[in-house]
Structures are given as C-alpha cells and as structure tokens.
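Posted in: Structural Biology > Protein-Ligand Complexes

Title: Requesting predicted complex, zinc ion in pocket

I'd be grateful if someone could produce the 3D structure tokens for the following input. Sequence and ligand are given below.
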Amino acid sequence: MSGAPGREGVDMVSLPRPVGEYQERALAAPPPYDAFNCSPDNMRMTVNAVPVSTALKARWPLPLGAIVQPMADESKGRQVPVVSLGSAGIIRCKRCRTYMNPFMTWTDGGRKYKCNVCHVHNDIPGGYFSHLDHEGRRCDVEQRPELAGGTVEYIAPAEYMVRPPMPPVYFFAIDVSYAAVSSGLLHSVSATVKDLSAPQMMVVAELDEPFLPLPDDLLVNAADSRGVLDALLTSLPATFASNSVVDSAMGPALQAAFHVMQHVGGKLLLFQAAVPSLGIGKVKNREVLSAYGTDRESTLRQPDDPFFKRFAAECSRVQRVHPTATTCLVLKLPVPQVSSTLL
Ligand SMILES: [Zn+2]
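-- Reply #1 --
Done. Output follows.
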C-alpha cells in the first residue's frame, strides 16, 4: 500500500474487508503446530506471505515483522524444558550460529551434523555424541529437549555474558518539550512511572559530548529512595507546564543514559513526543511527496542517520540496554533491530 497523507493513494475506507469464509479464516485461531516448532504464542509473523526474491523485498513497502513472546508459555500453563549442556557448551552452527534443533540431520555415524539453515557440516562435540538408529536418527532424542521440541531454555554459560547477572535496572528518559507537555505525554508518563519507581532529575546543557552530572552512580534503589522519587515525578508536569521549548535533544539524552548504564546493563525506556532537533541524531526533513506511489517510496522508510545504528550496536555490546521510542520510527528502527527491543 502507498500514499502520502491527504494525497492520492489507498483510501483505507474503500479497502474490501474479508467476509464470509474469508472473515472466519482471518479471525480463526492459529492452526495447530507440531512440537518441533515453537507455539504461535511464542512467535508469529505479522504477515502470512513474504517476498520471493531480494529484488521484490527491496520494493516491498510493508515492514516484515514477528511478534515474539518468549515468556508466553507460563501464562498458558506450559513448562519450558531447561537445557544445561555443561562442558559441551551451547551447540550452534559454526557458520550461521543456528542453535541445535529438531531439524538438524546427522552424518558420519553421528559424529557430524548438517545445519538445517545453511547446510554446512559441523562436528559434534565429544560430550554430545550419540549413536544413530536404523533410520539415521539419534538414539537420545527423547532425552534431549532441544532435539524433541521447538521451545527450550538454555542455561547460558559465562561466555554468553559480558558481566555476572546484575539486579534489574530501569532507566526512564522523558521528553519535556512543548510537544510532550501539550500532548499530555509528560503527565501520563510521570503518573505511570510513579507507580513503578523513579529517577533523579539533573540538567546537562552539553549536546555534543554529554557528561554525567554526578561523579557517583546515578542509579538508585527504587525502594530506598521511594519518597524522593515520588516527589520528583509529581513535580515534573508542573515544572514544565509552561515550557514553550519545541526543540528536543533526544540523541544526547540516549548517550547520557548509555553512560549511566553501560557498566550494569538494564532497560532504558524512552518517552518521546517531539521530533529530535538538537545534537547528534537530530532529524532532517526528508519528506519527498513526489516519491509516494513510486518505486522510491520504500526509501522513505529506510533510516538514513547512521547514529542510531551505531548506538544500537553499542547497546547490544554491553547487553540489555533497550530504548523504546514513540516517534520517528523509521530513523530509530536500527535500535530495536539490533538490541532486541519492543518499539
Ligand atoms: Zn548453519
């Protein structure tokens, strides 16, 4: 679908809606799945058809997405088997890093396996060897959840962590520009976060090289500092109620949050209403109305600022720093793509 707002393009109202058996099919529960795949509760594609070629994908205006809920099983009353492979480590394809799964096939009497994604042959570590039965299947399939089912939980060994497990850290970065105040975002976010925990407020005017305003750790224990944090969140909407500043320094704010959290990891939640207009990561106006309805339309949906891609890679390197954004989705797309974030 295509079309600039207010211009020619697809009229959503005129789109035919599914009726009869098509409506029933659209509303039906997902089809049953075999145990070798994960449940649709865990992972579902946002579309049920995908481009058949790279060339078609490049011209495809719709983003391809998957809804991933790794914790869905418990809410459905299912237990996820836990896998701890000890000295064998987590077994993954040497070329494409695909995890051991029920679709791998076995060769050389069980001493090698063929990756079901990239078809390369891998050696089986000594501690993971099993004889094959007369049909070429491993004899220990029933004892190994990763070979018998599509959903397992691995106990990650030390090489998968950049630091020992840390207490959960949440960092809230809140836009206080005119757009955030007038839209009610600041008020809503302050009220909501107050029910969870809360941050301290410091003012940093430096845009190009944001620094930390306190030499010590800016993170606080939510339970110990509850009173101070509640007071801050209560005062935030009033403090900025008459704010007429329309500019927003979102990129520098993200960088400052990164500096605070990089030694412990954690989750960064960004609540943004205004278009970023100051410092690194500011948005350029690249709307080209003539591109709508043409092959060039898909380029408008590609991020063109390398800052967000670099930032996402840095977040991923220190693990678990996950911004959530509400505006300029195209520009920030690399951040959740690389750092496993809900956008
Ligand atoms: Zn592979």
